[in-house]
Amino acid sequence: MKALHYIIAPALLACLTSVPGLAQLPEGLTVEDDGQEGSAVVEATDSTLSLDIENIDIDSLSDSYLDSLDVNKDIPINDYMMIGVQYGMGLSQVSWNPTMKQKFRFVPYNFGVLFTRYGKMFGYMPYFGIQAGLFFGQEGYQFDEDDEGYTPTVEGATGALMNVVEVPVMAHCHFDFWKMKMMANIGIYGGYRLSITRFGDAVPESIRNSFLETDNRLDYGIKGGLGFAFVFDPIEIHFTAMYKHSFGSLYQPDYYSQYYYRYAYPANFVFSVGVHFQLTKRVGKTQHALKREAREHLGLIKSIQEAVPTEKEGEE
Predict the structure, then answer these.
(1) Same domain, 70 and 85
(2) How does DSSP assign 20-52, residue by residue?
(3) Consecutive H or E run containing 115
(4) What pLDDT is attached to residue 13?
């Protein structure tokens, strides 16, 4: 495409470079000094600018054309950071091998802080981010009576409750619309079991509130879930349902027998609400906003052409 050249007066060039939001020209235009005092050149290098901007009605442009314009390189879309506090409660149980009859144990505490960094995947898909946090929570188990009236036990305990601390790192996907967003998370976590309380009449007092040497206190596993949020810039209120599955057994597998291994993997369902504060400005919220930004870019190009005489006019 043959480059278009315009001679711009110093006042216009200063205006373009000093007004907030216009310091960077739209994609496809560059400003260069032509070597003469008091003048500069605006050069169109992008073939997508081949339409007749001078005579076009910008508001009449179709959505499909606006969607084809690349505005992401000029305006950071959904590239923002956020920090928040979250509180929840949930249900916990353990995957036993061999299987033992149980029911869910209610866990009333799960709270912590979350840092979220939104960014574009592959440089242009504004639906992704990453979350990392620090949480204090609980997990445990509660055995149930079987059909024969027998209630299983572990170390004499019919149930237990553990306090844990964990650090999750998760991929965070979101879809924004109106003043809401839908969210999905998936990732991993590492944790540590701080304390334990065992329940049951047959539990020895010496281990009722302490771990055994054969117990595993380090924890790790996968974590993920779904949620939605209300967005009132700069505050967001998030509602999430998360599932956490541990790959760290509660005890060493050969603690009972070196010939018959036993495993116990905790799992939690946690329902929580969080208040998050945007640390940086959030832009490009919806497809409607992206189309508006495309119109603004075309409007800037048109305003340059209207304000500056063309080469042909200059020759006359």
Answers:
(1) no
(2) TT-SSPPTTEEEEE-SSTT-EEEEE--GGG-S-
(3) strand 105-121
(4) 39
Amino acid making up residue 139: E
Q: 190, 220 in Cβ contact below 8 A?
A: yes
Give dist(CA 93, CA 152) in Å, integer: 14
What length is written for the chain?
316
What is the pLDDT confidence band of residue 171, given thresholds at 50, 70 and 90? Answer: very high
4 within a domain of the structure (yes/no) = no
Residue 86 and residue 70 share a domain: no
The reply to whether 262 and 309 lie within a common domain is: no
Average pLDDT, the chain: 78
Burial class (CB within 10 angstroms; exposed 0-12, middle 13-18, buried 19+) of 105: buried
| Number of compact structural domains in the chain | 2
Average pLDDT over residues 34-42: 42
CB atoms within 10 A of CB 232: 9
Question: Hey, is 241 helix, strand or coil?
Answer: strand
Tell whether 188 and 299 lie within a shared domain: no
- CA dist list (Å): 117 to 77, 78, 237, 254, 298: 12, 9, 16, 42, 30
Same domain flag for 41 and 104: no
Asked if the model's pLDDT at residue 107 lies above 60, the reply is yes
Taking Cα atoms as reference points, which of 310, 313, 316, 315 lies closest to residue 4? 310
Query: From CA 195, how far away is CA 211, in angstroms rounded?
Result: 7
What 3-state class would DSSP assign to 12?
helix
Looking at the predicted structure, is the pLDDT value of residue 240 above 80? yes
- Of 245, 214, 235, give the one whose Cα is nearest residue 83: 235
